[in-house]
Task: structure prediction
Amino acid sequence: MKYILFILLAINLFSNDDLKLVELAYDSGLKPVPQNFESLLKDLDTDADSLSKDKIKLGKKLFFEKDLSLAKDISCASCHNFNLGGADAKPTAIGHKNQENPFHLNTPTVLNTAFSKKFFWNGRSQTLKNQAKGPLQAPFEMSITPILAEKRISQNKAYKQMFIDAFGNDEVTFEKIADAISAYEKTLVTRGRYDDYLLGYFDKLTQNEKDGLKIFITKGCVGCHNGIGLGGQVLRKFPLSYHTVWSMKKPKEIKELLDKYNKYLNGLSSFKSLNKSDIKALKDGFFTQIEEKKVLKVMRSSACDECHEKNTNDIFPFENKGGFTGSQKPKGYFRVPLLRNVVDTKPYFHNGEVKELKDAIKIMGKHQVRIDLSDDEIENIIAFLKSVNGKILDFTN
Result:
């Protein structure tokens, strides 16, 4: 790939800036989506039998099959709407008998999940096949049992030949149902102008979009949102730092400030030893008031780890409706979301409490990578993410 880029540069078709940015992208773990089925198999490290065209065809029919829900009124596609970025645009997922997810969790996108290594918000599943079984059986989602699912699909004559083609016999099992659905989901891959840019078509992105890609990399977003899917690879603690003041300070700075304040409290220094910046940080950060000879009231701790251990909900920079705090061992870790088609999957975060993408990006900058992104930087990142958006590729023909 880099050889091709160097050839393009050598014949002066494109600028050195573009070449450097694409090299930086590859070096940072970013990759374009595969352009054909053979490349998809290679990227997924699977064989043609595991992802056969007949199995994909069966999985597609099952993905839209409402008989796989107890009340026969919803399917996998009910929550994973392709016109809504593979999600449902709701703060919390709605399932059987209009039940809300008990933890107020929203629906992650199904698009590009082929490139994930962790599934569910707490990353408890390691394979897409295993993940597919969860929503089918959850009482607040599709609420069906494996036995009932097998019975209903077995009774539908339209599936008989499809199971023979996909698996070599017409026996219907829950394992086969999940296997076929996951096979189809692995083909729900989207491609945008960003992918063409990574392949050397440097005119596919505007300057704002290129600036957004550079900011995305250099400001640290790519540290978690990498790979083909721009996420989904690992679990990360969230938030790393939540406090409106302390999130923007390094641990060394916090220690120095608190040392200065403790010296003042203990009579080892005067109030004047605290400059205006110190006083503002202390006032905004911990106290209702910070004035000489006044009683000071501590508002809350800044230790994110301590809050996680106590299972409190004030660790988040937004209301944690539902009380979900991620994984249990280790505590407080979340699956890094995929960012492909993210501009279509509002609202954001695990409980859908943040409605706008610009606000989500600002929160991630402050509480995850300790930077205060400017409005222009945020707009450029959004422009870049729009260039990532794309339509589902057709791997079924």
